């Protein structure tokens, strides 16, 4: 099973998962998918009712089948179309977009509040960015999140990432 560039770095007192993915679409198109509620709901592990395009408080809703859990979030940095940073519960997500060939190098720096979660988180983002890539290609496959991920190779991905990032 193919894994993407991922590594774990100490960010005292937390750990930051750095996950890199090459996408065949320009930064502006990827930016829209990262910030617009209608697009996020098609690929991300959460839903939101407000665009993530301006600093301020918001709510990101974890979705797992019929279960929905609201988590507080604060958008802290927005530099369109190259940088988006926000809290998600106790975690911090920093999305960096840079032109790469005819597409975008997407780098996610996910600072984890809980140690020992990196391989699970990497597997989840792997599936999410696979869905994102298909969405951007115009060939959406539907969101894969929560328990549904188990039916799409999440356990195997978790094991593969555990061997890569420890």
UniProtKB/TrEMBL annotation:
<dbReference type="InterPro" id="IPR023393">
    <property type="entry name" value="START-like_dom_sf"/>
</dbReference>
<dbReference type="InterPro" id="IPR013538">
    <property type="entry name" value="ASHA1/2-like_C"/>
</dbReference>
<protein>
    <recommendedName>
        <fullName>Activator of Hsp90 ATPase homologue 1/2-like C-terminal domain-containing protein</fullName>
    </recommendedName>
</protein>
<feature type="domain" description="Activator of Hsp90 ATPase homologue 1/2-like C-terminal">
    <location>
        <begin position="24"/>
        <end position="136"/>
    </location>
</feature>
<comment type="similarity">
    <text>Belongs to the AHA1 family.</text>
</comment>
<dbReference type="Pfam" id="PF08327">
    <property type="entry name" value="AHSA1"/>
</dbReference>
């Amino acid at each position: 099973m193919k894994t993407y560039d991922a590594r774990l770095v100490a960010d005292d007192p937390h750990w930051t998962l750095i996950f890199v993915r090459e996408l065949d679409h320009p930064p502006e198109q990827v930016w829209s998918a990262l910030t617009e509620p209608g697009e996020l709901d098609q690929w991300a592990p959460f839903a939101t009712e407000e665009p993530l395009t301006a600093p301020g408080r918001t709510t990101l809703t974890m979705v797992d089948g019929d279960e929905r859990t609201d988590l507080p979030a604060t958008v802290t940095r927005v530099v369109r179309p190259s940088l988006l940073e926000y809290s998600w519960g106790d975690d911090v997500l920093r999305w960096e977009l840079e032109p790469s060939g005819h597409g975008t190098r997407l780098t996610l720096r996910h600072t984890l509040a809980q140690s020992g979660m990196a391989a699970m988180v990497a597997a989840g983002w792997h599936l999410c960015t696979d869905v994102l890539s298909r969405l951007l290609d115009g060939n959406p496959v539907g969101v894969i999140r929560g328990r549904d991920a188990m039916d799409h190779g999440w356990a195997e991905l978790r094991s593969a990432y555990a061997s890569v990032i420890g």
